[in-house]
Amino acid sequence: HYLKVHAVKKFQCTQCDKSFSTEAAKIAHLRICGLEFICVCDKKFNSYEALLTHAKRLSHSVDEKYKNLL
Asked: Which Pfam families match (predicted)?
């Protein structure tokens, strides 16, 4: 927990400006960096979590293809 929240973030994503305190966190981020998560209603989100929140609030289904990315 300490490393994730408080440590110096010396591992920077090469695709965006986000930095991470561990290389493992950076690698996990790189798998989804730059992806768009699109709802069945065509609304776009930058994260899977945001898509899930939207889908739950509006009772939309979530495409199963995104689960393989996580």
From this structure: zf-C2H2_6, zf-met
Helix (H, G, I), strand (E, B) or coil at 19: strand
DSSP helix/strand/coil, 56:
helix
Who contacts 38 (Cβ-Cβ below 8 Å, separation ≥6)? Answer: 44, 45, 51, 63
- What's the predicted TM-score (pTM) here? 0.62
Cβ neighbours of 32 (radius 10 Å) = 14
Distance (Å) of CA 70 to CA 48, 50, 66: 9, 14, 7
The tens-digit pLDDT sequence of the chain (70 residues) is 676 677 888 899 999 989 998 899 999 899 889 889 999 999 999 888 899 999 999 999 887 777 776 6
d(CA 60, CA 42): 11
